[in-house]
Specification:
Blueprint lengths: L4 H15 L7 H9 L9 E8 L4 H20 L3 E5 L6 H7 L6 E10 L17 H4 L7
Antiparallel strand pairs: 1-3, 2-3
């Protein structure tokens, strides 16, 4: 990732692994934490979200809105969610497992359950960039 996105992503990782007390040099512990993605962080329900391969960025944006609405509605029912793009890398395994038609592209998974508020991974909030750092308004004075 280019700047400033690379350093923001790096900072988030430092915070997460710091909260988990996993040293940067501890490759085994870092890998074990990463593998928790593929256990849906112990959530009892997971959804695989796919989109027709022929669709493009406009529809990907629509799908992002749909996923956001799904997660927001779940929260309204007292459920927590975690969108997991990491699953897209495993399309060759997930597709056949769920009998996904070949014209569908695995976009992500969404874990659904009750979050563990006491878990160290939930003990921090990543910083947010100020709007002027990422948002530009064109055509307005």
């Amino acid at each position: 990732m280019w700047e400033p996105y690379g350093s923001r992503r790096e900072h988030h990782g430092v915070q997460l692994y710091g909260a988990l007390k996993i040293d940067r040099a501890d490759a085994a512990a870092r890998l074990n934490q990463y593998k928790r993605n593929y256990e849906f962080f112990n959530a009892p329900v997971a959804l695989f979200i796919a989109i027709d391969r022929r669709l493009g960025p406009g529809q990907w944006a629509d799908l992002g809105g749909y996923i956001h609405a799904l997660m927001y509605l779940a929260r309204g029912h007292g459920l927590d969610t975690c969108a997991q793009e990491s699953w897209a890398r495993l399309h060759g395994i997930v597709g056949p497992f769920v009998n996904m038609p070949p014209e569908q592209m695995l976009f992500c998974a969404v874990a659904i359950g009750y979050g563990d508020r006491a878990h160290p991974a939930n003990s921090f909030r990543s910083p947010r960039a100020a709007p002027e750092e990422f948002c530009r308004y064109f055509g307005f004075e």
